[in-house]
Amino acid sequence: MKKFLIILLLLTASCAFAANTIINVAAQRGESFNAVIVEKEKRKLHVVRVTGDGVSIIKSVNVLVGKGNGDKASRGDLKTPEGVYRITGFLSGQRLIEMYGKETAKIYGFGAFPLNYPNLLDNLNGKTGGGIWLHGKEDNRQDPATKGCVALDNPDIRGLSQYLKPGTPVIITRNALIGSSQTYRQSYDTARAAVNEFINAWQANNFDRFKKAYGKGFRSKDGKSLQAYLNYKKYLMDTYPDRKIAADNFRIFHESKDEVVAQFDQYYSAANMTVYGRKTLYFRNEGGQLRIVAEDFEQMKGGNVRLAAKAQESKPVLPELAEKPKEQSKKPEPVVVASAKPLPKKEPVKEVVKETPKETPKETVKPLSEKIIAQVEPEKTETAQPEIHETPEQSEPEKILEDNMTGIRETAAALLDGWQTAWESRNIDEYMSYYSERFKGGRMNFDAWKKDKGGKFGRIASISVTIEDVKVEMGKDDTVVVTFIQKYTGDTYSDTGIKTLILENGDSGLRIVSENWRAK
Fold this sequence. Notes:
By secondary structure, this protein is an alpha+beta fold. 28% of the residues lie in helices and 31% in strands. The protein is built from 14 helices and 23 strands. The strands form four sheets. A nine-stranded mixed sheet has the order 6-11-3-4-5-10-9-8-7. Strands 2, 13, 14, 15, 16 and 17 form a six-stranded antiparallel sheet that branches. Strand 4 (44-51) and strand 5 form a beta hairpin. It is globular, with a radius of gyration of 26 Å. The N and C termini lie far apart (79 Å).
């Protein structure tokens, strides 16, 4: 009986532990992605799958971290930084030999995945240094620590490389935060509520509410103090009071209980500009409230067409419900806020473009009524009029979609140019950087495609690719369809056909998810 009770207690404890989840990273309901979590004190690296319901560990491995204790502050302090970062690329073992020579390259073993240290917050806090990588190890390495990087055994980093893609989030912390599924949702909801309040105040043009979102230690990307930045934002809010904002694809990261990072896609349109990109807000807990201490915006050309259209609706930002029916949990939940007529700017280079009222008179800002947006047909008069065939005026969403298509075509053209160059240079890593990890080509997935193309690149000495008559259109589910005439010439083979690439927007921008060729 006593033995039975001991077994029962062990099973109960095991079930209770299994119910817990890592809460350093969270996704909005209906979304999912992979991430990396490094626990410095335990010297563990976890590759995890993040969903709206929790975090599941794909694989955990032992790692080496910096010799120095604590957070990295300066170059040469031998410390591993703590914070929220992302993978920026991959350097193969061969590439490292080309860059540093065989003796130095062997330190990194299989290869290296550089991180974006120092990030914006690190720079604003005066941290220095660089070259922080996730990398392999030299065979029979004796040194139990690194100079600041995170080092894995070669078999481990090779096996995990399928999950380590450009844009993959990497959270480096002393110890992972563990909690129940309820705690997971609460941590997400708390951060999301802070973001919602920020967006609501911004779209309502309520400066008093807006300024409360910022913390005392805030500094802007270009180094402005909190007061200087708020003065600047007040000027813009007074000059351009009407705006459309839509946000979606939320991800919340906790480096610690008091350091939170929120990332989301943001579509913004006002009289001075229309812009789409990825917004990052860095929060710090100040007196029990999350306050913004830094913010970043990475513009993406073209943007999310669905999000642009959603921005036309006039709805306040609402928090996600704590519990939702399962059938709804699979759907993304875009955040939508109030509308105003945008005057699109063809090539905006910053999230906000400072212009004087003289350059953009207020009279040009004309909010549209619901009747105009709906394009209500006027009543006919009794006097007969000759029929006039005119091109119907575009609705506001249609105008925005047309403006976005210009940027989408430019982005697709840039991708096509880089893809063509990488193909002709037979650089397999650069070539595959234009493909999504979700790629499917015939019966081949991303890895099979890379292996097939890599083999061909090794056998063929010269490749020439000519692209003509490019057409860019929107496809299903916000994909972009690029069709063109392709003329290929290799050492002993050449052909001409019609190539179709299906592009999908992800963390690293537009990437190829499908490819098809047919003879012309």
